[in-house]
Write a structure and sequence with these properties.
Number of strands: 0
Strand content: under 5%
Number of helices: 12
Largest sheet: none
Oligomer: single chain
Shape: globular
Helix content: over 70%
Number of domains: 1
Radius of gyration: 19 Å
């Protein structure tokens, strides 16, 4: 439980514990990327998403049962759950498609632009308003995206475009999660995430008409994808509860050098200066946006 200061009802920041949770998130995201790369030649993205969702559904139900939280699962706002998971399903399919073709560091750099897309579309989804700082941060971040994509030096391939577009899907999912979290428990959100996306996965696999089942070699990687996806997002949520976003964001940014070294050591991927330079711009833009939001929340309204 987060400790409370005697003089305030706000939780006391605990960066040390937040850092431990972020280590778990970074390792889980990196393992999921490696597993996705290993599965890219064996299963298509629809099959990966189907098996990931089924494994996630079993894990969520098992944990909820053990914690006595099954009663927290509700059917209300089902339409919003479906819309939220349609965005996430699209984004995650694009992510798994891109992971088999482009450098892992480049994929993660594009993924860091998710909060910028969220800030851009937030007024349309959750009623927040655009500000000069938010628009300037988004503009700076999109310059960083162009630096990462390097459109001047190479053609924008389908995997590169997929990596850029996956962040839009993730942003839509985050915004709708924000709306759901006003009334829904985390157990309910995770249950419908896995259940609805299992249905999406089954429909798309049947529509594709060519179902492949994991063999002895690919099955362990499928389990890694299913388990690490849940662990990564749970760890990130725990870190954000223990420390403000301005503390967690730099820790999350450490995913980039970590995955760059993984790609270099396992797949002989080059360490691209453009990826790190563009990511720095994206990170700074995100930081500006978070700082502006925190300042707006702590500044008392003008009478």
């Amino acid at each position: 439980m987060v400790k409370l200061d005697r003089m305030s009802t706000l939780p006391v920041s605990d960066p040390a514990r937040a850092a431990l949770w972020m280590i778990g998130a970074m390792l889980s995201f990196s393992l999921m990327a490696v597993a996705g790369r290993e599965l890219s030649g064996e299963l298509d993205t629809f099959e990966i998403m189907l098996y990931r969702s089924l494994i996630g559904l079993v894990v969520v139900l098992a944990v909820a049962t053990a914690a006595g939280a099954l009663r927290d699962i509700r059917c209300r706002m089902l339409g919003t759950h479906v819309a939220r998971n349609a965005f996430h399903f699209a984004g995650q399919n694009l992510w798994f498609y891109a992971v088999g073709f482009i450098p892992l560091s480049q994929l993660f750099a594009f993924e860091f632009s998710t909060p910028l897309w969220g800030a851009l579309f937030a007024p349309l989804v959750v009623g927040e308003r655009w500000t000069a700082t938010r628009l300037a941060a988004c503009g700076l971040g999109f310059v960083g995206i162009l630096v990462v994509a390097r459109p001047d030096s190479l053609a924008l391939s389908a995997p590169t475009l997929a990596a850029m577009a996956c962040a839009i899907g993730f942003a839509g999912a985050i915004l709708l999660t924000k709306r759901l979290s006003r009334t829904e428990s985390i157990t309910s959100i995770l249950f419908w995430l896995t259940a609805i996306q299992a249905v999406f996965g089954l429909v798309t696999v049947l529509w594709d008409g060519d179902i492949a089942f994991p063999d002895a070699q690919s099955a362990p990687w499928v389990v890694v994808v299913g388990v690490c996806g849940l662990i990564a997002h749970f760890s990130l949520a725990k870190a954000l509860k223990l420390a403000p976003a301005t503390v967690v964001m730099p820790l999350d940014f450490m995913r980039l050098p970590l995955i760059a070294m993984v790609g270099f050591l396992l797949y002989d991927e080059p360490l691209l200066l453009s990826v790190f330079a563009g990511s720095a711009l994206i990170f700074y833009a995100n930081w500006l946006n978070v700082r502006a939001e925190q300042k707006a929340q702590t500044t008392p309204p003008t009478p």
